[in-house]
Design a protein that fits this description.
It contains 4 helices and 6 strands; from the N terminus they run βαββαβαββα. It is an alpha+beta fold. The protein has a 6-stranded mixed sheet with strand order 2-5-4-3-1-6.
Length: about 160
Amino acid sequence: MSTNNPTRSLLDAPLAPLAALTIWQPWASAIMLGKDVENRHWYTPHRGPLIIHAGSTRQSLEWQEEVEEMLGFAVPDPLPFGAALGIVDVVDCVASTTKAGRELRRKTAWASADSNYYFVLANRRPFPQPIPLKGSQGLFRVSDPTVLAAASLLL
């Protein structure tokens, strides 16, 4: 007797954990709305899908007006906190002191001269709604089934 069921849903299969990064608001929402560089002081070898997690801290909200000016429109109000917002692809990690880093600063206002590395982002895929999720420092693995199911629809 075969155990293969052709009507079984893709979402019934176990989903592999995905990499994620917690980012303070309003920067996390800015990424999902068009920010194409994430400034970091550390290098990552990670390339490919990355879940953007909005941290729970409200410490950097004084930057909201500047972020909105750079985007050219308002970020969501209220901003989501403590939630996965969607997926982006990390296509490169560029040292700010290199020729490529200097070129990136000329190309996009999002690359800050104060950072050591630029995570170059592309292919934003926001979730229909923010999904509550506990974050962590640095890159971390997400195995939450709700987040992974939503992500599988966007990959």
